[in-house]
Amino acid sequence: MSVEGSAAEAIRRLEAMLLVRAYEEKLAELQRAGAPGTCASVGQEACAVGVAGALEARDRILTNHRSAGHLIARGADPGRLVAEVLGRVDGYCGGRSGSLHISAKALGVVLTSTIVGGELSMAPGVALAQKMGHGEPGGIVAVFFGDGAACEGIFHESLNLAVQWQLPLLFVCENNDWQAFVHRRETMPGNAIAAWAAGHGLPVATVDGNDVEAVHEAARDAVAAIRADGRPRFLELATYRLRGHFEPDDQAYVDADELARWQARDPLQIQAGRLLAQGALDAGELAQLRERAAARIVAAVTFAQASAWPDPRTLTRHVYAEQGARP
Amino acid sequence: MTRMTIEQAIHQALAEEMLRDERVILMGEGVATKRRDLVQDFGAARVRNTPLAEAVIAGTAVGAAASGLRPVVDLLFAPFLAYAMDALVNSAGKLRYLSGGQFDFPLVAMSMTGSGWCVGAQHNHNLEAMFAHAPGLKVVMPSTAADCKGLLKAAIRDDDPVLFFSDLALLHQEGDVPDTADHLVPLGQAAVRRMGNDVTLVGYAKTVEVCLQAAAQLQAQGIAAEVIDLRTLKPLDEATLLNSLRKTGRLVVVTEASGLCGLAAELAALAATRAFDALRAPVVRLTGPDAPAASSWVLEQAALPSVEAVVQAVRGMLAEAAAGREALAAS
Ligand SMILES: Cc1ncc(C[n+]2csc(CCOP(=O)(O)OP(=O)(O)O)c2C)c(N)n1
Ligand SMILES: [Mg+2]
User: Which of B296, B298, B306, B308 has the highest number of chain A CBs within 10 A, making it the mutation to test binding with A?
Assistant: First the structure.
């Protein structure tokens, strides 16, 4: 790839991260004004954007409660996302999900679960269907989860099955040091999940989850390897949750020095700083990118707030299959 | 009396029981973060943050309970109990029996549920009946601060495993809690919240208030409703229910949980099998739908039995009775 081409891609990744950040910050603002709370992915934008950029439309992902980055990086319309959070009909799930379990099948975002570990329990099945010819040819599956999910027993069950059945599955662990209100150091002896994964006998890689280029590269390699041999891979992204667990959250339980250290490693600043240093971007252009992201989110909120509430008469629709609803 | 929220009442119950009995320990995801004063007062050994692992949190509680401790585990939201179900249902509920009575399981599994937070069905699921269905387990779901405190304390002292459900929507609601040194509410006792002769309204958790509001409206229409707060779902206080029913002859059960195989069905069966002769109208069940809870505020609220629905149901029951009397008089 040409240097120019790769700079353009790097700028696109920065743009995507800016969009995720603007979205998350706007939702936190809406929450303060009375909207439902959300699990913000601020600080983890590079994980979502880096991995999603290494996937193709034919691939599918599973995600969890902290999904906005994954959804947006996958091309979700922020207007429909905000509408879902607000419980409106134009949301991706018609307002039934709210922020916590947003799936968007058309975007390949399947089976989002806010039960921690739920995505890990279903991912082997999605990958099995892929392997048995029920997906796009050559597609693979990626499952996003946190360090907390790795503490659930289902994590090991999922890895073992994926290895044993040789499933085309990329495990993406965003190790952000937090499991709701408990620091990871209180829940496991080591710092890394990858060591556990390695014990299951699949190739693992660990990268700086705040460097979107590093994430992208590692994800690209892992995806290529899975496409080549159809076997699972494990990718651990070392990152940090910069906002609270669920808005609102004053983070009173967070060590201020640790937070400050990670704030100084903000993934957006790392990428912007790199592009500025390379001369691929100047300060004015950066400001423009920021403004563009902010404007898109403002438009998204306008769209969402104009969206209707669901009709209460539809309350029991979609509990069971409808006769003839799908061919 | 002291006014406090349900959340505060629960906290007091935990603190008092930990002080009273050093075998009481508290475990869960974030309990030590949330309840710092308990860590300070009773030490980190007795107030433990756990890994995110409900299956082993519950399993550990079961093992510890059988071995001399009295664990309280906070499993956060009721749907997460699904991960803990094996330990609670298969171990805690069965191993006293399967061991021929060799072991006690004095443990409490706390969780929250119910509408009000727009969090959707993986956090909001009134699945208490699933546990009432399991042998060996007791289930409480109080509606007031005083009952939350008194029942939690009683649950901690009980030698059987108790599921303690809190209604999310009520957590910040205030109520008067007795200042007595040891405020206990025994398991298995319903509370008559209001007396009346025409109809018995039964609810638990947030639907008690629905029943009370309906009763107030009905009173204005000359109908005297008795309101019963179940408080404990298992063991059921059959005597209080049957006494009321023999007096009123009419039963409306109001639950947020869905109806099929739920507490409302159980009470209807109780009425039919034990008070059939007293019944003057078919039992009415007003329950949540057979649908997962939606996140959207309007759908979440639409799933709840409303005060109007209760009023209408009662008026319908009494109108039928009046029409029946007229028909009889005309014949
Ligand atoms: C089974 C289950 N237990 C607990 C929770 C409550 N909860 C939601 S997110 C979360 C922390 C998850 O930590 P991690 O997997 O590291 O993801 P992160 O939030 O850091 O992105 C917890 C405890 C839940 N949703 N599901
Ligand atoms: Mg985490």
Answer: B296
**Local confidence pLDDT in tens for the 331 residues of chain B:** 999 999 999 999 999 999 999 999 999 999 999 999 999 999 999 999 999 999 999 999 999 999 999 999 999 999 999 999 999 999 999 999 999 999 999 999 999 999 999 999 999 999 999 999 999 999 999 999 999 999 999 999 999 999 999 999 999 999 999 998 899 999 999 999 999 999 999 999 999 999 999 999 999 999 999 999 999 999 999 999 999 999 999 999 999 999 999 999 999 999 999 999 999 999 999 999 999 999 999 999 999 999 999 999 999 999 877 787 777 777 7
pTM of the complete model? 0.96
Rounded to a whole number, what is the largest CA-CA distance in chain B?
77
Which amino acid is present at B289? P
End-to-end CA distance of chain A: 43
* CATH number corresponding to B191-329: 3.40.50.920
- What confidence tens digit (pLDDT) does each residue in B38-67 have? 999 999 999 999 999 999 999 999 999 999
Whether B282 and chain A come into contact, CB under 8 Å, resolves to: no
What is the rounded CA–CA span in Å between residue B247 and residue B224? 12
DSSP labels, A21-89? HHHHHHHHHHHHTTPPP----TT-HHHHHHHHTTS-TT-EEE--SS-HHHHHHTT--HHHHHHHHTT-T
Question: B299 and A312: CB-CB below 8 Å?
Answer: yes
Residue A77 covered by a domain: yes
Residues 6+ apart with CB under 8 A from A154: A117, A120, A121
Tell me, in angstroms, the distance from the centre of ligand 2 to residue B266's CA.
42
CATH 3.40.50.970 fits B2-177, yes or no: yes
Structure tokens at B162: 């108790």
Å from A272 to nearest chain B CA?
35
> What CATH number is associated with residue A256?
3.40.50.970
List the domain range (segments joined by +) for residue A255: 3-308
Of B11, B123, B125, B183, the active-site residue reads B123
* Number of compact structural domains in chain A: 1
Residue B105 CB less than 6 A away from ligand 1: no
Catalytic annotation present for B183: no
Q: Is-same-fold flag (B2-177; B191-329)?
A: yes
Contact list, B86 vs chain A (CB under 8 Å): none
The per-residue pLDDT for A255 is 97
What are the residue boundaries of the structural domains of chain B, listed by start?
Answer: 2-177, 191-329
